[in-house]
Amino acid sequence: MNDLSLDALVELVRTSDHSTFYRDHWGAETRFERLRPMTREKVAQTPWNARRYSRQKSLLKIVPFSSRPFLSEWTLTDSALESYGGEGERPLVYLSNPHERLEKSLWCYAQGRVPVIGESVIDAGIRIALKCRIDSLLTDMAMLPRLGALFGALDAPLVSLSIIDTEFDYVRIESFARYARTTRLVLALPETGVIGASSIDTREHWHVPHRCHLDTAETIVISKPRLFSLPIIRYDTGISSRAFRFSR
Amino acid sequence: MWAALDRELDVFLQERPHNAKEWAFRVSSGTTGVPRVKLTRYEAGATKRFDGTRKALVCMGADSARLRNALIMDNLKYPDSPHILAVAASDLNDSFSVVINEFQPDSLFGFPSLISRVASYVSKETGASVTRLVLYGERVGASMEAFFRERFPRATLSMTYNAGELGPVSRPSCGFLPLNQYHPRDGVTITIDQEGGEGMIRVSKNISPSIRVENIETGDIGRFVDMQCPCGRSVAFEIVGRDNVDYVKVAGAILTVDESDRVMRLLPSIEDYHIDASLEVVEGALLGKLRLSIFPPHKHDEETIREQVSKELRLTPTRTLSDLVRDGIFKPLEIRWQEQPFPASVKRKKLSFTPL
To answer: What is the per-residue pLDDT across B265-311, written as a single tens digit (0 to 9) for each?
Structure first.
């Protein structure tokens, strides 16, 4: 399904035969800007089958969360539209969560690239990556410092290094940035996809993804104008907006 | 073989493929200590792996194997199924039962040892929703089969034989053969060094788009089955065990002879040893078990030896036997004293695996 206006998405979700999850949460309110934000806690406490708005083939991920883990479902068509990685023909996908590794690897396929997925045994994963002559990397803050042996063994700087996370330690990132021509910062949650993007050189300014709507009063509340399996409509990410200055 | 595969990989890496989704890197398990990579090609829609499946739980150890399964799903032409959840061993913690029972898969694909661990998190209702178990890679003994049938009472069990770097060797189950018996895949030739009917299985097949190998040892011991299958095929073979000279796999862990030798060298009073790995059902869960036989006997040191070996013996890249015992994945190390030196035939193999 193509992008919708936010009002059309709200109407579609409100009248959906698949689930009453959002409708029950919103009550009678119909104006987008006054809809009660959805919370991660509420999603985590609601069984997967009770919050699904599409039935297309999909990949499910286990999302760790403080109260209990929950299932996040993405069709590969939808996740392909997110902007996780940067330039590069032979990406290595080495995020700390195995479900995120898998989804971001499929994202690479959708961009026409054959990825190398990082194995849980790091030594082996690095050897495989070098053998496949990877030229770009998608990773996160937890994994980045564990890949020192990889950076040290590269013949040439990576075309791009993409760090996908919710918090960024700029000092630490800068110590690795010399191993890549560009270092992208991608603010994302497993269930929302990309919330914003920046680079280590321009980290004072974060770009909002195309057609994505952010409300940044205290925490970042995001909406995406597309009928995902779990639609993202005034979704409270729980991420403080103080650390990020967004612009189109 | 590997030199040819490396050359093929080098050529592939030189330019972007026309259709990326047809290609994947297959990674060997690294039991030799050196992980290997080879190229695999999937023609879109060529596999029937997920036919009839709506919700698939994929239980495989390597990330590259989980990725290949997800890629196969992506390449299928059906718009609305399947939904795939690919679990890793690290998912199996206290809260895993919440998500697995929410998902309620109808089919499970993967290694018997990992599926058996997943099974201990599955509710009775979820177990009853499973209609298909597709097992790869490891022999399933009678007790494990009984365990699966008790946990998944409505499921049909089928097996596919994959041999490490060689990839798939057997056809998908025809539905008539018992577990551990297989028909060779088209284009695959099986030879068996027959000694009393059983011997090393050797395989000849195309292992990549451009490379064919001949008579490669699989490390598995098997025999031909004399039969005319109701499906119409007349060639079948059975896996009876593994020629465990270098390593054993049990309960998702790998014990290599290098590692056991290293640990035993820390105990100079031990002249010789043998470790048998097995699985045991404990309160409905399948646990790994190691039985260490030692010569000569030092019975007064039993507790010290158990503690030291458990603390040192590394069974995964990050965890020792002690860790796995603490996490409820393995039983405590069992020690047996060998009053006489090991017979020569056993002495050649320090590791063995006894199927459940």
So the answer is: 788 778 788 999 998 888 777 889 999 999 888 777 889 999 999 99
At B183, which amino acid appears? H
Give the lowest-confidence range in B93-97, B210-214, B245-249: B245-249
Burial of residue B285 (CB within 10 Å: 0-12, 13-18, 19+) is: middle
Contact (CB<8Å) A112/B37: no
pLDDT in tens, A117-171: 998 778 888 988 999 999 999 999 999 999 999 999 999 999 999 999 999 999 9
Q: Which DSSP helix (H) or strand (E) runs through B117? A: helix B112-119
Q: Is A41 helix (H, G, I), strand (E, B) or coil?
A: helix
**Beta strand pairing status for B23-27 and A116-117?**
unpaired
Calpha distance B55→B62 (Å, rounded): 21
Q: Tell me if B244 sits within 8 A of B31, measured CB to CB.
A: no
Q: How many residues does chain B have?
A: 356
> Which of B57, B100, B102 is best to mutate for the A interface (most A CBs within 10 A)?
B102
Q: What is the pTM of this model?
A: 0.82
Q: Are A90 and B60 in contact (CB under 8 A)?
A: no
Q: Which class for B43: exposed (0-12), middle (13-18), buried (19 or more C-beta within 10 A)?
A: exposed
Q: What is the pLDDT of residues B28-37, one digit of tens each?
A: 654 445 567 8
Six-digit token string for B249: 């796999």
Closest CA to A111 of A137, A90, A135, A140: A90
The reply to whether residue B63 touches residue A101, judged by beta carbons under 8 angstroms, is yes
A128 contacts B6 by C-beta, under 8 angstroms: no
Q: How many residues does the structure list for chain A?
A: 248
CB B316 within 8 A of CB B339: no
* Angstrom distance (rounded) from CA A47 to CA A113: 34
B282: tokens are 């404990």
- Supply the DSSP symbol for B300: G
Per-residue tokens: A232: 């993202």
| Torsional sign, CA B99, B45, B164, A100 | negative
Max CA pair span of chain A: 60
**CA A204, A209, A213, A219 torsion-angle sign:** negative
Largest CA distance in chain B: 67
Per the listing, tokens 């109407």 go with A11
- Residues in chain A within 8 Å Cβ distance of B99: 48, 62, 69-71
Q: Does B75 touch chain A (CB under 8 A)?
A: no
Of B251, B212, B226, the residue nearest B112 (C-alpha): B251
